[in-house]
TrEMBL record, chains A, B:
Main enzyme class: oxidoreductase
Organism of this sequence: Pullulanibacillus pueri
Necessary cofactors: Mn(2+); Mg(2+)
All residue ranges annotated as the Isopropylmalate dehydrogenase-like domain in the record: 5-345
Name of the protein: D-malate dehydrogenase (decarboxylating)
């Protein structure tokens, strides 16, 4: 009997609605397939927690999380209560960095039954490998002067190690897929970090001569995600560019509410974290209408990560079938509640 | 008789094909409407020029350009010959900065007869005001160490002056339009420059209390450009975010090949520069199939800038009518050549 010990952080807003639903689904899968079980340990770390304790998580939070097989997180952020840069850097980004989850992988693909905003959404199936530990997201920088003379400086920091790690991950993933890697650059406008990025890409690709490559500036690439997403297989991107591309990936699928993500620790020192692309959506929190599919698809990525691909495939098939039947939340053109979607999915898994 | 003296820089690739066509169109308009004339002064500054002279433009280039009423530019870049960061910073970005063209405005709207990749492209009509002089595009930064220890640092620099200038421009434009400004931020991930950006936005908006505002993180905003572009009026964005959003704007119209742009000098010290969103497209250069509409629509922005709105409207109407009839280049689903499109447009203007 394989037991998986999972730290569960619902976080804020709709995270608190969709995480419990995803856990029900995972329990159902474990019951059906047998041979494995989950032990869930919930942590209330969130903006509410901040209000009570003055921090997003306890000082020994990272140490606590270290003992789990994985972290399953909902969403973080409630800007009415805590400014985003404090809540996110105090919890989500803090975990990504401290636990060396240096790669963020986010698939996007045509999903039957979803209303894509695209005329021709068929047959796209791509995955963005996002550098998750450095780049444009850096705490280095600051301000000088006041009022009309004020200046803010933000440093983006790209290391050879971090850049190469993301690229190698992308190439290795492409070898298991359709053998194509696209690099997201902007070396025509951003003249230090991006020519560096291009140089590392040119070197790394030599080690994967059977993988085809392309390189586009982020502006053109974002446009191509809309005009011809079908041409892409694996895309490797910096922290910011990966963030932007994966939201577009969600949009062309039909809703950011279904897009899944995994924050992968590649050195084996810490657990990985599974967290959907969508945020905490305070505007719809509490209405019971949040789309649980992003969180549930994220659960599938966790299963795959554990090597439980059979369960993952079972789950994905059931998701497609339920959505295909029109049992879906309002953001993707349905009328079902969060719980109704999960309930239908659970019935489908059992049948 | 009003005479406009225009510096013409076709630049590289398809810039050399579409600029002459746009000039023909402008000549036709001047003939038809009377009361104005153009004097074109061509400059061969480009990557070819670089090969001959070791620089993209002469040392006194900026001084030379200063004497014109406007600069009309095609596209810059031929990476086979000159690395992009050298060609762009040596010519396009050099002019933007030296001539204090601190605002880049780029409209995107539903265009009858264009095949948008969106199921529902109708009725969107937005304009991106892009900060054009600083931000993420900065020459400040560098590298340290070699090989596996190499690190690249890129500074993004946001001044109060530059940020506020772009925002005020956006608010004033919104007052003449539908009275709504959206700010593109990413303060949840980028913790120095973007909270600064948000703070300036919050202050500036107080001076325009009749204008409604919204603020979205760039990832969500890029997704909204795809899922519901109709909700936007004026969007104000940093240099990089504006760059990305406007390529998506081109994509949802149906092609980046039609998107126009203007680099505006707001202090009256230098001429403004009119340059379409698309690049030099070396892959299709020389085939006679480049879409001239982006360059021609850009010419309309130049006319508007001169206060010649009547001519601008005449041109836009003729463009819509020609495209609506299916006389268009291959990138937007037609079979016409560059010259055929212009010829049809000129006939329409005359009729
Ligand atoms: C060519 C490049 C430097 C330029 C930019 O990013 O500004 C282009 O993409 C644009 O949008 O005008
Ligand atoms: C909330 C925010 C900091 C985060 C990010 O930009 O990384 C989110 O957009 C994401 O993509 O996970």
């Amino acid at each position: 009997m394989q037991k998986y010990e999972i730290a569960v952080i619902p976080g804020d807003g709709i995270g608190k609605e969709v995480v419990p639903e995803a856990l029900k689904v995972l329990e159902t899968l474990a019951d059906i397939h047998g041979g494995l079980s989950f032990e869930w340990t919930p942590f209330p770390w969130s903006c509410d927690y901040y209000v009570q304790h003055g921090k997003m998580m306890p000082d020994d939070g990272i140490q606590t999380l270290q003992n789990f097989n994985a972290i399953f997180l909902g969403a973080v952020g409630n800007p009415q209560v805590v400014p985003d840069h404090i809540s996110l850097w105090g919890l989500l980004i803090n975990i990504r960095r401290e636990m060396e989850q240096s790669i963020n992988i986010r698939p996007a693909r045509y999903f039957k039954g979803l209303q894509s905003p695209l005329v021709n959404p068929k047959d796209f199936d791509l995955i963005v490998v996002r550098e998750n530990s450095e780049g444009e997201y850096s705490e280095v920088g600051g301000r000088i002067h006041k009022n009309e003379d004020e200046i803010a400086i933000q440093n983006a920091i790209f290391t050879r190690k971090g850049t190469e790690r993301a690229m190698r991950y992308a190439f290795e993933l492409a070898q298991k897929r359709r053998g194509h890697v696209t690099s997201a650059t902007k070396s025509n406008g951003i003249v230090h970090s991006m020519p560096f990025w291009d140089g590392v890409f040119d070197e790394v690709k030599k080690d994967y001569s059977e993988v085809e490559t392309a390189s586009y500036h982020i502006d053109a690439l974002a446009a191509f995600f809309v005009s011809r997403p079908q041409v892409f297989d694996v895309i490797v991107a910096s922290n910011l560019f990966g963030d932007i591309l994966t939201d577009i990936g969600g949009a062309i699928m039909g809703s950011i509410g279904i897009a899944p993500a995994a924050n992968i620790n590649v050195n084996g020192k810490y657990p990985s974290m599974f967290e959907p692309v969508h945020g905490s959506a305070p505007d719809i929190y509490g209405k019971g209408i949040a789309n649980p599919v992003g969180q549930i698809w994220t659960a599938k990525m966790m299963l795959d990560h554990f090597g439980e691909e059979e369960l993952g495939q079972h789950l994905l098939d059931a998701m497609e079938s339920v959505i295909g039947e029109g049992i879906k939340t309002v953001d993707i053109g349905g009328a079902a509640t969060t719980k109704e979607v999960t309930e239908a999915l659970i019935q489908r898994l059992k049948s």
